[in-house]
Amino acid sequence: MATQTLTDDMTDEEFERHALAVLSRELGLAGYARYLRLCRSGKGDYPADRHTWQAGITLEDIWRDLEAQGLTQKP
C-alpha cells in the first residue's frame, strides 16, 4: 500500500519553500548560501541563448499566445 507524504499535496511554490527551509536548517547559513550559488547561478550565456530562442518572435505572436491561453481581455 502506498503512503502519502507531506509534500504530495504541495504546489510547486510550497514545495520549493519547504525544500529551501529544510536545506537551510540542515546545512546552516553558509551551506545554504553555497547551495543557492551552485544551483541557481545557471550555466551558459542566457542573453545569447535568449536571442536565439526568441529570434523571429513578434509582439503579435506573444499576444496571440496570451489570447489562446485566455490571459487577455478583449476591449
Protein architecture, described:
With 75 residues, the protein is mostly helical. The chain has one domain (10-68). The protein is 63% helix and 0% strand. It contains 3 helices and no strands. The model has no long low-confidence stretch (mean pLDDT 85).
Shape: flat
Distance between the termini: 53 Å
Sketch the topology as an H/E string, one letter per element: HHH
Oligomeric form: single chain
Map the helices and strands.
Layout: H1 12-40, H2 46-53, H3 59-68
Brief summary of the model shown:
With 75 residues, this protein is mainly alpha-helical.
Task: Give the key terms.
3 helices, 75 residues, 63% helix, mainly alpha
